[in-house]
Amino acid sequence: MEEQIFVYFIGTAGSGKTHLTKAFSDYLEFKKIGHIIVNLDPGADELPYEPDVDVRERFTLEGIMEKYKVGPNGAQIIGADLVGTIADDLKDDIELYDAKIVLVDTPGQMELFTLRRSGEVIVRSFGRENGVVVFLFDPIVSKTPSGFVSLVFMASSSIFRLNLPQIPVLSKVDVLEEREVETIVRWSSDPEELYSDLTLESDKTLSLELFLMLKDSGLFRPLIPVSAVTGQGMDDIYDGIQEVFYGGEDLERIFG
Ligand code: GTP
């Protein structure tokens, strides 16, 4: 079987990972590109899509709470660690499908996936060279310069921990005004303007040295505005994946 591409949707709690996974799946469906969805969140309640491979078939948050006599927070942590222990089984399940692209919906709280070992173990098992992260910038947090910079730090920590290329997106842009989207996208491509707006935000400071270090490390990257509701930006995510793996060559032709 030819190599599969793994697209990991990562972002802070409620940033829209699950709905973006579904929207991008619909987009691939429309383009007739074979793909499957993997749900890695044992605590997922109702999903807007039918997962092809689902960690909840092995354990759920409720089951963990009962078995280990812990509350929901403890169960989230145990659940995240357990995901790592079944990485190879999940990979076997995925290989049963002849899917070109595997969309991976990660657990609600991103730190459970990126900071604990499970994320690393999953990425290694699924294949690091075949992976790319779609990192979601929450639209409400991104509205202030300090919130935006904080998300740049979080996106950077996920690059650092998982060692995967990243396509940064501004999620749920349908809830923002057009000028807000423009401002946030401009911050992402013009860090000097961001720094200048940051200094205007009351009581928020970031040393110029640290800011310049972030900028010089290439950690500010132009954001793609996306919406799972309107479908905006799906083409751009697709182009981003093509760029990462095939230097812009059309995946449809390669997979065709
Ligand atoms: P957790 O895994 O629970 O942390 O959330 P998540 O990051 O997977 O986010 P999810 O897709 O569950 O979306 C959170 C909320 O935002 C839900 O109420 C969605 O209906 C809503 N939402 C997601 N995407 C969009 C979008 O593009 N536009 C709008 N308006 N709402 C969205």
Characterise this structure.
- By secondary structure, this protein is an alpha/beta fold.
- The protein has one domain (5-249): Rossmann fold (3-Layer(aba) Sandwich).
- The chain contains 12 helices and 7 strands.
- It has a 7-stranded parallel β-sheet, with helices on both faces.
- Strand 5, helix 7 (145-162) and strand 6 (166-170) form a beta-alpha-beta unit.
- Helix 8 packs across helix 9 (191-200).
- The radius of gyration is 18 Å and the shape is globular.
- Residues 11, 13-19, 41, 108, 171-172, 174-175, 227-229 line the site of guanosine-5'-triphosphate.
Looking at this protein, list some descriptive labels.
single chain, 256 residues, alpha/beta, Rossmann fold, 12 helices, 7 strands, globular, binds guanosine-5'-triphosphate
Helical content (DSSP H or I, runs of 4+): 40-55%
- Number of separate domains: 1
The major β-sheet equals: 7 strands, parallel
Number of helices, counting only DSSP H or I runs of 4 residues or more: 12
Question: Superfamily at the CATH H level?
Answer: P-loop containing nucleotide triphosphate hydrolases
Class by SSE composition: alpha/beta
CATH topology: Rossmann fold
Strand content: 5-15%
Low-confidence stretches: none
> Mean pLDDT score, rounded?
92
What is the overall silhouette?
Answer: globular
Total strand segments: 7
- CATH architecture label name: 3-Layer(aba) Sandwich
According to CATH, what is the class?
A: Alpha Beta
Rounded radius of gyration (Å): 18 Å
Q: Can you list the ligands bound to this structure?
A: guanosine-5'-triphosphate
